[in-house]
Amino acid sequence: MEFLETLINGLSIGGTYAMIALGYTMVYGIAKMLNFAHGDVIMVGGYTIYVILAQTGYPFLGLAAAILFCVLLGVAVEKVAYKPLRGASPLAVLITAIGVSYLLQSSAQMIFGSAPKMVTLVHINSINIGALQIEGHVVVTLISSFVIMLLLTLFVKYTKVGRAMIAVSEDKGAAQLMGINSNAIITLTFAIGSALAAVAGFFMLLKSPSLTNTMGAMPGIKAFTAAVIGGIGSIPGAMVGGILIGIIEAFSLKSAAIAPYTNAIEFLILIVILLVRPSGILGKKRREKV
Amino acid sequence: MALLEVKDLEVYYGVIRALKGISFKVEKGEIVTLIGANGAGKTTTMQSIIGLIPIRSGSVVYNGNDITKTPCHKLAKLGMSQVPEGRRIFQELTVYENLMMGAYSVKNKSSFKDDIEDVYKRFPRLKERKNQIASTLSGGEQQMLAMGRALMSHPDILLLDEPSMGLSPLLVTEIFDIIKEINKQGTTVLLVEQNAKKALSIADRAYVLETGSIVLEGDAKELMDNDDIKKAYLGE
Fold first, then answer.
1. pLDDT for A222-258, tens place per residue?
2. Beta-carbon count within 10 A of B29 CB
3. Pick from B52, B92, B102: CB nearest A178
4. The domain that contains B24 carries what CATH number?
5. φ and ψ at residue B83, rounded to 5 degrees
6. A262 vs chain B: nearest CA distance in angstroms?
7. In a domain? residue B60
8. Total structural domains in chain A?
9. CA-CA distance, A142 to A220, in Å (whole number)?
10. Among all residues of chain A, which has the CA nearest to that of B52?
11. Looking at the predicted complex, does its ipTM rise above 0.90?
């Protein structure tokens, strides 16, 4: 029973990581850049929820506002900071992304201070099935994240715009020949990634109500790890990687002896997987262009 | 008025002047070929016309509109379609999905079924393999898919970049017959080829490109009999 509880816990944590990892992997696949400021979008979502909750008292209004604000932020950052660097060296883009990350963290600290804010969203009762007892937020996160992953998969596979995203990620030039506006697709990708980050922020606050300006940093890095383990650029890869990291984390935290080393274990697994499969679990080998 | 007119086109790669001010035109209904050796600037010409490479100076006029600065993704809707060098089909998508991408710019969805049937009729092998992932196709099938994909947008002009690349002589003949057929049915063709003999055999007119400049132009049949051309490009 305890095993099953931990597994469900892990799937739930993994669902949150997958939400974040999807943003990394989609942006990498389509804009060919590592957006290291992605984790901080979670934090911006968190503060948006905090502000709206304080003003209105409605947590779901806070979530909606966070999604909207994060989408606008993600799209604006892409336009202002990344788009002018298209074609520049990957290193320049990477440094810019790190700069944006610190800009967001520092701005949040200037506005809200460095003391943690408490954000109590909603209390959801635990669910008992026989001897199985699962916390309410775990169930909500698990179900919502899996539904979102399913919807995203269907969107990419079965809509015209979704297929255009695959086309741009595979060959931007050929996609343009088809009449696909690759800049619009890149903007859309940032919008989707940022919306998912806002949702992830909501899940994180459901689990633990403490909000700081660095709340996105560690989950961001771990989700990035998840995306790389799954195969960066691959949407199912980010889901698999996120869930895997979540399960590892849940089991690792269960044992008092191992718990302090949880992060180390996760990154160790990243190293091992990359040694065995450099392109990640579901990543494809890079094709050489003729 | 020519359907496509290129004037004094100059393209640079960094400091290297890849196209040194070339001019040529394609009349409606023609097959015009641009022949030349590797590195002459054939693909550069094609990619700059379609907007994948920035043009330094000169102009490209298509159907009376200056498209020199028009972004690539707007040209499909204007009736210009390109089969790029190396085919560049979407490897992760199925044959059917690739053809769907070809129709991306087509607003009128009702014609899609007929269009795809037309492509299948022209390339029966694509129909047999419609649910297959494109990366599993052979080279010849990939070329057919790239051509079928380009035809899905009802182009007035089809730009073909090295369609014979990497194909067996038998397949090359098949592909060139199909190009001829597409042209007969009303599509103007601009063809870039290293296989000069094949290209000249189906073209109306030809331009010879050498290190970024046009050195010779004329009727395709006449060029085939030109001694310099025979020596340099036809291996006679």
1. 999 999 999 998 999 999 999 999 999 999 998 888 8
2. 13
3. B102
4. 3.40.50.300
5. -100, 105
6. 36
7. yes
8. 1
9. 19
10. A173
11. yes
